[in-house]
Amino acid sequence: MLAFFEPKIVVLAVPKTGTSALNRYLRKIADIAYIGVEGEKAGKHTSVSDFRGKVEPDLLKQGHGPFECVAAFREPVSWLNSWYRFRRRDSLDGKPQSTKDLTFDEFVQAFCLPDRKKPLCANLKPQSWFVCDKAGAIAVDHLFKYELENREISKFLADRLNVEIKLDQVNVSPVRTGFDLSEKTLRLYRRAFASDFEIYDSL
C-alpha cells in the first residue's frame, strides 16, 4: 500500500492484480510505502476497511488526507488461477502451501470450503475482502479492471501523480497450466464468492 500526501491518493495492493509492479515503480515517490514491518499498522496488502479504520485516522491527525483509494480488480477465475500457478513454483515443493498435487478444479473446490476447513494452499482472502467495507459495499473510490493490462489504473495514477509510468512485470506466476474448470465447480465458485463476480461485472 502506497500513500501520497499531496494528491491525497492511496494505492491499495490487491494480491495478484499487477500491484507488485505498481508498488515497485511508485514507492520511490510515495510519502509512505507500507510493507508490513514491525510496528506498522498496515502492510503491503492492506484492505480498504483496515486502511479507513486503522491507518487513515492517524494520517488525518497528522494533517494528511482524507484520501481517495485506488485499486485493481481481476476476473475471479483468472485471479484464482494465478494463485494456483504461483503456488506450483518449485520453491514450495513439499510444503503445505504448494498446489502441485492438485488440479485447478480441485484447488477451486478447496478455496470454496469454509475457512476452518480450507487447506493451507487455498487459505486466501477473496478480492472483495480487500475492496469492500464491513457491510460488503465497495469502499474503494477508483476501481479498475486488471485485464486492461493496468492501462487504466496506470493512466489514472500518472495523471494524478504527474509522473510517467512504465511497468515491468513483477512477481509473475509460472506459465499457465491446469486451467480446466468444470461447470459444476464454476457454479460452486460463483455461489460461494458471488460478490467477487458481481464487482468484476460492474466495472
Secondary structure: elements and pairs:
Elements: E1 2-4, E2 9-11, H1 19-26, E3 32-33, H2 48-61, E4 68-73, H3 76-86, H4 104-111, H5 127-131, E5 142-145, H6 151-161, H7 183-192, H8 194-202
Tell me what the structure shows.
This protein is α/β, with parallel strands linked by helices and about 200 residues long. It has one domain (about 1-200). It has helices at about 20-25, 50-60, 75-85, 105-110, 125-130, 150-160, 185-190, 195-200; strands spanning about 1-5, 10, 30-35, 70-75, 140-145. Strands 3-1-2-4-5 form a five-stranded mixed β-sheet, with helices on one face. A hairpin with a 4-residue loop joins strand 1 and strand 2 (about 10). The radius of gyration is 17 Å and the shape is globular. The two termini are about 20 Å apart. The model has no long low-confidence stretch (mean pLDDT about 90). One of its GO terms (cellular component) is membrane.
The backbone outline, from C-alpha atoms, is globular
Overall number of domains? 1
User: If you average the pLDDT, what whole number results?
Assistant: 89
Please tell me how large the radius of gyration is. 17 Å
Q: Roughly how much helix do the residues carry, as a percent range?
A: 25-40%
SSE pattern: EEHEHEHHHEHHH
Strand content: 5-15%
How many helices? 8
Number of strands: 5
Give the key terms.
sulfotransferase activity; 8 helices; plasmid; 203 residues; 9% strand; transferase; kinase; single chain; alpha/beta; Sulfotransferase
Quick rundown:
By secondary structure, this protein is an alpha/beta fold. It has helices at residues 19-26, 48-61, 76-86, 104-111, 127-131, 151-161, 183-192, 194-202, and strands at 2-4, 9-11, 32-33, 68-73, 142-145.
